[in-house]
Amino acid sequence: MQPFLLEIPVLSWHHAPMETHQAILIPTAESSAPSSVHISGMCTFRDEGDLRVIFANGIPLLHYARTDRAAEHYALIHLVACGLATQQEVAAAFGCARQTIFRARRKYDHGGMAGLVAKKRGPKEGSKVSKVMERHIGGLKSKGLTNAAIGSRLGLKEDTVRKALKRMGWSQPKGGDQGELPLGPSPSVPLETREVEEREEQEHPGEAPGEQHPERGERPKDRPQPSFDVDPLERSVDRAMARAGVLEEAAPVFQAATTVAHAGVLLAVPALVASGIFTVAEKVYGTLGAGFYGLRTILLTLLFMALVRIKRPEGLKEYAPAELGRLLGLDRACEVKTLRRKLDRLAAREQALAFGRQLADIRLKSREGVLGFLYVDGHVRVYNGTRKLAKAYVTRRRLAMPATTDYWVNDERGDPIFVVTAPANDGLARMLEPVAAELRALIGDSRPLTVVFDRGGWSPKLFAKLGAQGFDIITYRKGHTTAVARECFSLMAEEIEGKRIEYWLHEQSVTFLEGALPLRQITRLSPSGHQTHIVTSRKDLSAMTLAYRMFERWRQENFFKYMAAEYALDALVDYGVEEDDLRRLVPNPKRKKINLERARIKAEIKELECRYGLEAMNNQEAKRRTMRGFKIATAAIRRKIDRLRQRVTELRALFRATPAKVPLKETLASDTAIYRLKREKKHLTDLIKMVAYQAETDLLALVRPRYARADDEGRTLIQSALMASGDLEVTGSELRITLDPLSSPHRSDAIRHLCAELNATETTFPGSNLRLVYDVKHHRHVA
Q1: E strand or H helix at 650, and its extent?
Q2: Geometric angle at alpha carbon 626, from 620 and 631, rounded to 5°
Q3: Number of neighbouring beta carbons within 10 Å of residue 588
Q4: Do 96 and 157 sit in the same domain of this protein?
Q5: Are residues 296 and 325 in the same domain?
Q6: Residue 145 DSSP symbol
Q7: What count of Cα atoms within 13 Å lies in the side-chain half-sphere of residue 552?
Q8: Fewest CB atoms within 10 Å of the CB: 78, 85, 197, 488?
Q9: Whole-angstrom Cα distance, residue 616 to residue 610?
Q10: Are residues 40 and 71 in the same domain?
Q11: What is the DSSP letter of 685?
Q12: With 0-12 CB in 10 A as exposed, 13-18 as middle and 19+ as buried, what is 495?
């Protein structure tokens, strides 16, 4: 039988399917040539040279090149999907496994035709290291940075950096051992100089740092890097440059828009800029390496999240990235995985403590008038995971639980200054001295400081040490104290912070450490008759002022409560743990067992003594007329009491001989491990939340003169303004934010006054030259 001419589509499987037509000679299906392969009762296939043709009921259905694996996989899944053959029949005819058909179908469902094309084999990270990136790596390595430090800066793995240096043929420079240098600025070179030199060397490799280049204009350091995109909603060029490793951070580009959700959060930008968080972060952390989302953008994202009450990184899933991106000047905000990856990169540098110190230094200089009294207290964050952690006493639950303790320092208005994390849930009495050292380093030696704390810091020896360092103390007295007679109290009144305060007080002098530590004791009598004793080393202030400052310690407790509810202060950011220090000293558990045994024996002795007394009271004198007879009758009880008393004496001697503290390793079983939560990322996010709270406080201070109920609901007003929607408009060098009216005219008027105060600061949006101008729309009056 003569073959007939049929024109059918030829599928090209390179990158995307394309249809062309060519004429091929195909024998009729009725011919039973020996090259035909039976697939099922409805279809067969035949090979003709380099082509393979599939017939369905005698009609040509598909044809493709026999070497095209993607086309063959499409043919396999097409035959099964159309019901022309079963998976078993197709697998047997084409000589493949059923799993091959399953995998091909999954790839096709996910990526279409392109998903069936085999991916290029080879190292996955090779494409990340471009020629420009190699120059960056070589420049940083020549400065002595380790491979891990270079990878952290450029967003690469340490193994990738090592292989890139090997390909480049890099060798250690002669003239000195560079060694392994820690991540961070060199102690002999200011960080700003290092960053400028690195940038110059990256842009012009081979030139000496600091060398003048007249052919290119010197860009001012504070001038923001421009964007290479025209459309603010399409930042493909900047993203491509970030992928190529030539862009450290995308510049903010805004576009006019109406009814932008949470546009009110931009009210906080002047306060955030004034806090110095962006400049301090650049000094401490440098950059995050090449990327679309840089250090400034990540910090601004976290700050905005805190202010609009997105309490965890996972909360970003509930918000449209494009809407949040409008507030950042980007086409879209980063996703959860990107945010976590950037946080991991920052935490790996372990600079949160230095970051917090510099932020506190700026805050203290701007609030010198409220540093007369500093409140110090610990906040316990309970851990409910499966790991075994050291325990801390949780006051609100009245029991010891696995937890981590942070110690905060707040000013006399209750606003936070800085925070430190206890290494192993150390008590306030142990942490006060290092906290005081941090305060003295920040404030200096010339200014007297008064620290206020609760009974957890009670230790007369500690008071003496703090006094020698120039600190005064105010705290509650701990332990048993003789009550003061009611007639000794007198009613005192004084106006403090614009309020009239009245207390029933009594004052006397007390001494500790065998008279070496004289202090003042101020006792307050409450209406219920309860007496509260306060001790202080301040001699120059009235008893009313000192008592008021002690009782205002609840401002710090209210801060903890507010932060936990509004900012999720207790939420975990990092779920990782690290093994605890097995060499640190902990209370000896043997002493606890000895005390429990002593308590049990004392209780038994008391029970026997009661029984002995009952026998004496019920003694029948007719049978035992003398005391000697009674003792003979109850000799067994007496002997038991004597043995138990002797045992108590032995236990007391054993308790004194047992060391009070031992290394943690000695308290654990051989196969038991104890952990502690990783602190760096939590410390960093706590600092960011602290700065957000401080910005909220600064906004409240500006709105207070125009809002009568600022003390009661001022923060609620600020929060409503931050959550308000509004319009964005870009006019020349200005970014205008016009907020929608609030719930009532007088609240809108208060925020309008706040806008006027903020406009006077002439703040520019971080990373741009756009000056922020704020306003509030007027209410529409409906007749």
Answers
A1: helix 635-657
A2: 85
A3: 17
A4: no
A5: yes
A6: B
A7: 20
A8: 488
A9: 10
A10: yes
A11: H
A12: exposed
Angle between helix 336-347 and helix 295-307 axes, rounded to 10 deg: 110
Lowest mean pLDDT among 9-13, 48-52, 249-253, 294-298: 9-13
CB 306 within 8 A of CB 317: no
Torsion angle in degrees (nearest 10) through CA of 127, 132, 134, 135:
180
Which residue in 443, 449, 370, 366 sits closest to 413, CA to CA?
370
Distance between start and end Cα atoms, the chain: 93
Average pLDDT, the chain: 82
Strand segments, DSSP code E, in 411-513 are: 416-421, 449-452, 471-476, 490-496, 499-512
**CA angle (387, 389, 395) in 5-degree steps:** 125
Point out the domain boundary residue: 606, 628, 658. 658
Closest to 724 (Cα-Cα) out of 751, 760, 745, 701: 751
Say if residue 206's pLDDT is above 50: no
Q: Are 10 and 20 in contact (CB under 8 A)?
A: yes
DSSP state, residue 348: T
What's the farthest any 2 CA atoms get from each other in the chain? 142
Scan for tokens 């200054």, then name that residue: 417
User: Which carries the bigger pLDDT value, residue 553 or residue 671?
Assistant: 553
How would DSSP label each residue in 721-768? HHH--EEEEEETTEEEEEEPP-SSHHHHHHHHHHHHHHHHTTPBPTTS
Residue 15 included in any domain: yes
Instruction: List pLDDT tens digits, range 67-78.
Output: 888 889 999 998
Q: Which long-range contacts (CB under 8 A, 24 or more apart) does 650-659 make?
A: 651/594, 651/597, 651/598, 651/601, 652/598, 654/594, 655/591, 655/594, 655/595, 655/598, 658/588, 658/590, 658/591, 658/594, 659/588
Give the model confidence (pLDDT) of 722-745 as tens digits.
Answer: 999 999 999 889 999 999 999 999
- Number of folded domains in the chain? 4
**Residue 73 half-sphere exposure toward CB, CA atoms < 13 A:** 23
Ordered alpha helix ranges (H), 554-634: 554-566, 589-617, 627-633
Mean pLDDT computed over 43-52: 88
Can you give 566-580 as a three-state secondary structure string? Answer: HCCCCCCCCCCEEEC
Q: Coil, strand, or helix at residue 669?
A: coil
Query: How many helices and strands (H and E) does the chain possess?
Result: 25, 24
Query: Which helix (DSSP H) or strand (DSSP E) does residue 260 occupy?
Result: strand 257-260
Helix or strand or coil: residue 695?
helix
Q: Residue 739 in contact with residue 721, Cβ under 8 Å?
A: yes
For the whole model, what pTM was predicted? 0.68
Bridging pattern class, strands 771-776 and 734-739: parallel
Do 642 and 688 fall within a single domain?
Answer: no
- Say whether both 645 and 690 belong to one domain: no
Does 530 fall in a domain?
Answer: no
Question: The domain containing residue 147 runs over which residues?
Answer: 126-203
Question: Looking at the structure, do residues 253 and 158 belong to the same domain, yes or no?
Answer: no
Q: Of 304, 387, 384, 374, give the one whose Cα is nearest residue 339.
A: 304
In 3D space, the residue among 670, 529, 520, 655 whose CA is nearest the CA of residue 594 turns out to be 655
**Three-class secondary structure of residue 317 per DSSP:** helix
Tell me: do 289 and 340 sit in the same domain. yes
CA distance readout (Å), 45 to 3, 68, 79, 81, 173: 16, 16, 11, 17, 66
User: What is the per-residue burial (b if ≥16 Cβ within 10 Å, else e) of 224-263?
Assistant: beebebeebeebeebbebbeebebbbbbbbbeebeebbbb
Q: Which two tokens stand for residue 781?
A: 């009056």
DSSP letter (8 states) at residue 386: S
- Is 641 in contact with 609 (CB distance < 8 Å)? yes
Radius of gyration of the chain (CA): 38
Nearest to 113 by CA among 236, 193, 18: 18
